[in-house]
Task: inverse folding
């Protein structure tokens, strides 16, 4: 008997038992809905985290920091020789070193602001490594590297968003720097003020002020620096470049932070979380499958006589089996196809509800300043939809197999006698 | 000339709990093409069992049933279903129609199972329903027509695949005398006009009297054979 006719007969049969069919299908709908809702949210969550990390990390910028998480060695200081050695590694495009001076205060005559970090850098190189973050609100790069110029981060210049800027280009400021145990004042001219940048890998440049490296070296009387940024020509080389940088130093003396591997790590964790969540959702589908088995077993008993008639007029066991499996498959097809859009819709509802619970933490150094409200935009994934539909239909057929086999194996004479 | 249907020493024993009940104890007879054979006997004589075995619904413990020279014992369940579909039509005492299908769809069912395209099968089902006098009842469900009409639908279903033989199990057993008489007349007419072969199991003497041959069955054995009304 042709499959098309079998399916149309199965469809007619199901229409005769509307409530039963509806309730059985509902189980499948709920199962698929749960899977798709969690998968869409999971995909959205992954996307928003990945996006944030990509915004937060320059994927092509490696950070070399002294010391290691595993061994409390004496902090390594970097020298010009180290910078030169690193710049000779293949696929390295820019290497720049940074000297960090903690907690400085700036005075402009009227008031004062504090900066989290005063970073002594080579302006040109630094801008080459972080072109997207070194964007000026006012002013610009110093025409020539003068020793008394400052570039000021957005949050330092606007400690309170509502008030006007602390300084503008060409303003004179005094910076108080702590040297060992005493404080010393230095005069600087503002060259430029920066736009909001967001969080890079290590910290937020918004809370930094930038001064020329040479000036800082003179103040502290040293030729060394605290960390090195390495820009690779393409993020895909970051792994090999990091290994070669590590090879330049004694073991455990330095750590190379590779943003790409962070993202890959986080991605694989999110993958596991997503699979974990959807497997929990799959339990709902299993329950639906058991419901189908239950209902179909009852249905086979009710229709014993009908099965007997079918066999008497010449239906093969295989035909009877296919008839019942077709009903299970139809429940699976209809339930799954309904569950996918409902699940996607539910994910939007869930995302809306969840976003109410997660309120942004304001005024934290590690908070991206422009984040107003944490939202996960659910993402519809065709892969998940196809997998869920196939899974849904497979579960229905699998659980329909037992009652369908029972129907197919009925002895026609016995079945005809059944009242 | 070989017979259309042959039963050779057919034996069948049922197990009722722990007791073995011999239903058929060695039955041998032939049915020629175009014959109308009645199997007559009291209830419990093994009539229904015999019909099930002849129709390939049940397998005998011993002996062999052949249709068109093909032995059932050589066929597996699928092939036997195919024989039921193509060569045998069944008519039951309780009609055994599918209650949710219309008369037309009930009659069409064997053609559907035989993969006949729907266009052709509908046409043929209509023709067959007209043949049994139900041209105006095609779209009624079994519950919407009388018992006699239901049995006509069942006869139409039995005929639809142009079977070699129609096996009827107490076809009048659930009908009043006059309706039963009409059903007998219908079967007789089909036998006369189309040469349709019938084996009818009954304890209704009215049927038996119209048959070409009557087999008297008792305690699972054919007690005697009576040549009935001869056809011209």
Result:
């Amino acid at each position: 008997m042709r499959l098309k006719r079998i399916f149309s007969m199965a469809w007619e049969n199901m229409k005769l038992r509307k409530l039963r069919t509806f309730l059985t299908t509902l189980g499948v709908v709920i199962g698929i809905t749960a899977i798709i809702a969690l998968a869409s949210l999971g995909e959205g969550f992954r996307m928003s985290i990945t996006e944030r990390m990509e915004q937060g990390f320059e994927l092509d910028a490696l950070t070399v920091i002294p010391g290691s998480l595993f061994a409390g060695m004496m902090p390594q200081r970097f020298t010009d020789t180290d910078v030169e050695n690193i710049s000779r590694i293949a696929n390295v495009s820019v290497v720049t070193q940074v000297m960090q001076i903690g907690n400085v205060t700036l005075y402009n005559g009227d008031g004062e602001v504090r900066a989290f970090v005063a970073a002594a850098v080579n302006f040109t190189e630094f801008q080459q490594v972080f072109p997207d973050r070194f964007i000026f609100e006012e002013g610009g790069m110093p025409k020539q590297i003068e020793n008394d110029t400052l570039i000021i981060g957005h949050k330092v210049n606007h400690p309170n968003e509502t008030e006007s800027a602390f300084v503008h280009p060409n303003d004179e400021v005094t910076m108080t720097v702590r040297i060992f145990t005493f404080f010393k004042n230095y005069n600087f001219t503002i060259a430029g003020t920066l736009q909001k940048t967001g969080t890079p890998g290590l910290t937020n440049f918004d809370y930094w002020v930038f001064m020329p490296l040479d000036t800082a070296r003179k103040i502290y009387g040293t030729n060394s620096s605290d960390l090195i940024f390495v820009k690779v020509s393409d993020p895909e080389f970051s792994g090999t470049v990091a290994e070669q940088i590590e090879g330049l130093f004694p073991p455990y003396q330095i750590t190379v932070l590779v943003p790409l591997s962070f993202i890959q790590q986080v991605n694989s964790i999110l993958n596991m979380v997503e699979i974990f969540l959807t497997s929990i959702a799959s339990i709902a589908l299993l329950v639906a499958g058991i419901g189908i088995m239950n209902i179909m077993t009852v249905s086979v008993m009710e229709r014993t006589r009908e099965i007997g008639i079918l066999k008497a007029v010449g239906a093969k066991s295989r035909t009877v089996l296919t008839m019942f499996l077709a009903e299970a498959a139809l429940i699976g097809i209809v339930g799954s196809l309904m569950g996918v859009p409902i699940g996607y819709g539910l994910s939007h509802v869930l995302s809306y509800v969840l976003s109410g619970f997660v309120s942004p933490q304001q005024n934290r150094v590690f908070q991206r300043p422009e984040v107003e409200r944490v939202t996960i935009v659910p993402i519809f994934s065709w892969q998940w939809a196809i997998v869920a539909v196939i899974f849904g239909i497979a579960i229905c057929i699998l659980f329909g197999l037992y009652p369908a086999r029972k129907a197919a194996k009925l002895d026609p004479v016995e079945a005809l006698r059944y009242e | 000339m070989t017979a259309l249907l042959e039963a050779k020493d057919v034996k069948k024993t049922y197990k009722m709990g722990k007791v073995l009940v011999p239903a058929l104890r060695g039955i041998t007879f032939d049915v020629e093409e175009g014959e109308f054979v009645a199997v007559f006997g009291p209830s419990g004589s093994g009539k229904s069992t015999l019909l099930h075995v002849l129709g390939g619904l049940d397998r005998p413990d011993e002996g062999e049933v052949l249709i068109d020279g093909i032995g059932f014992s050589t066929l597996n369940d699928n092939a036997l279903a195919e024989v039921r579909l193509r060569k045998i039509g069944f008519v039951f005492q309780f009609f055994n129609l599918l209650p949710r299908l219309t008369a037309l769809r009930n009659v069409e069912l064997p053609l559907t199972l035989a993969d006949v395209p729907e266009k052709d099968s509908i046409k043929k089902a209509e023709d067959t329903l007209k043949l049994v006098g139900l041209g105006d009842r095609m779209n009624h469900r079994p519950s919407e027509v009388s018992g006699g009409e239901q049995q006509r639908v069942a006869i139409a279903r039995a005929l639809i695949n142009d079977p070699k033989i129609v096996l009827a199990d107490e076809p009048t057993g659930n009908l009043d005398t006059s309706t039963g008489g009409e059903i007998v007349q219908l079967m007789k007419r089909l036998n006369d006009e189309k040469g349709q072969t019938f084996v009818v199991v009954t304890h209704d003497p009215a049927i038996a009297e119209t048959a070409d041959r009557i087999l008297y069955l008792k305690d699972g054995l054919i007690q005697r054979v009576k040549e009935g009304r001869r056809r011209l």
About this structure: The two ends of chain A are 27 Å apart (CA to CA).
